Amino acid sequence: xxxxxxxxxxxxxxxxxxxxxxxxxxxxxxxxxxxxxxxxxxxxxxxxxxxxxxxxxxxxxxxxxxxxxxxxxxxxxxxxxxxxxxxxxxxxxxxxxxxxxxxxxxxxxxxxxxxxxxxxxxxxxxxxxxxxxxxxxxxxxxxxxxxxxxxxxxxxxxxxxxxxxxxxxxxxxxxxxxxxxxxxxxxxxxxxxxxxxxxxxxxxxxxxxxxxxxxxxxxxxxxxxxxxxxxxxxxxxxxxxxxxxxxxxxxxxxxxxxxxxxxxxxxxxxxxxxxxxxxxxxxxxxxxxxxxxxxxxxxxxxxxxxxxxxxxxxxxxxxxxxxxxxxxxxxxxxxxxxxxxxxxxxxxxxxxxxxxxxxxxxxxxxxxxxxxxxxxxxxxxxxxxxxxxxxxxxxxxxxxxxxxxxxxxxxxxx
Length: 414
Known about the structure:
Blueprint: E1 2-7, H1 16-25, E2 29-34, H2 44-51, H3 67-74, E3 77-83, H4 85-93, H5 99-105, E4 111-115, H6 119-123, H7 125-136, E5 140-141, E6 145-148, E7 154-158, H8 162-176, E8 188-193, E9 198-199, E10 205-206, H9 213-224, E11 228-233, E12 245-248, H10 252-263, E13 268-271, E14 278-280, E15 301-303, H11 307-318, E16 325-332, H12 340-351, E17 355-360, E18 371-377, E19 388-393, H13 394-413
Parallel strand pairs: 1-2, 1-3, 3-4, 4-5, 8-11, 8-13, 11-12, 13-16, 16-17
Antiparallel strand pairs: 6-7, 9-10, 14-15, 17-18, 18-19
Helix pairs in contact: 1-2, 1-8, 3-5, 4-7, 9-13
C-alpha cells in the first residue's frame, strides 16, 4: 500500500518515526511529507533513512513529476501525525500553501489525522469546528490521548501512541472497502438529510432533534467514492459538503416533491432525513396569541405521506431498466411492546426498501452526536442471521454504509 505520512510542526513529531517504522515493517511504501516547521523537531535525513524515499516539503521540488498532484492522487492512504491546530485549520479551510496541504486536497483515499496540541487549543471552538468540518467530509480525526503535555500540564491533547494510530489508519482503509475512490464513478446518489419543520404559525413550528450530521457524512463518503451527489437538505446544524448539488427544503411535503423529482435519474436514494410523521392540519396566518380570556388552542395533526413507501411503490410500478436502490433510515426507541430491532424489522417489511439502516435514538443518543452505532437490515436476512453493524464516527459509519451499497449495486449489475 502506498502511504503518505504528513508530519506537523509539534514536539510530538519524533513519535512519527515509530509510526513510520510500523508502516514500513508491515510492508507498506511510505513517503514522508513534513511541514517546514516540523523540520525544527525532526530533520529530512531521519525520514529518508527510515522510509527509503526522498523527502520534500516544497511544491517546487520534482516539478517535472507534478509532485504536488501526484502524491495525493496516487496514495492509498494519507496519515497526518502529529496534526497540529494550525494544520487542522489549514486542511479544513482547503489551503494549499505547502506540499502537505496540496497533497491533502488531492487525496482520493482515506485521510487520517492524529491531533497533538495543548488542551486549550484542542478545546477551542475554532479547532472543534475544524475537526467537525474534516469529519463531515469523510476524514478520520482520532481523539487525542490524555496525558502529560509539553511543560508541566496534563490533559487531552497528547498524540496517541503510534500503535493506536497505526491500527486506526488500517481500519480506515478497511472501512472504505469497496466504496473506496472511484467505486461509485458514474453513479448518481440522492441523499436526504436534516429534520423537517412543520409550521404552526409564522413564528412557531413542529420539528425534531436531527442535526444533519449523518446525511452530510453520507454525502461526503459518496463524493469520495466518485458519485454525483444530490443532497436534499431540511434543517441542518452543519454545512453541506462542497461539491454536492444542494436542494433546500423545509417541510415534509417539500421534501417529498424534491425527492420524487430526484429519484427519476438516481441510481441510489438514501432517505437519511428525519421526516415529520405529522403536520398541523391548519397553519395560522398570524402568530397564535396567549390570552387570559380565551381557552388554550388545540392543535390538530394530520399524517404526512410515507415518502419512503411511495418511492418504493413508484419504482416497482415503473418496472423499466435497472431499478433504483432505495435505502431507508429508522431512528427507533424500544418500549414495553417491542425492542428496537423488532421495530426495525417491521418497518423494513412495511416500507419495502432494499436496505434499512437502524439506530436507537434518545435525548443523548445519535441526534447531534459525532458518533453512532447502526445495524444494516436487508429483506434477505433471516431472524437468526448476524446483522451487519457499524460503529464509530458518523463519517466512519457512512463509509461502511456506502461499502454495503456499493456491494449491492455490483451484485445487481453482475
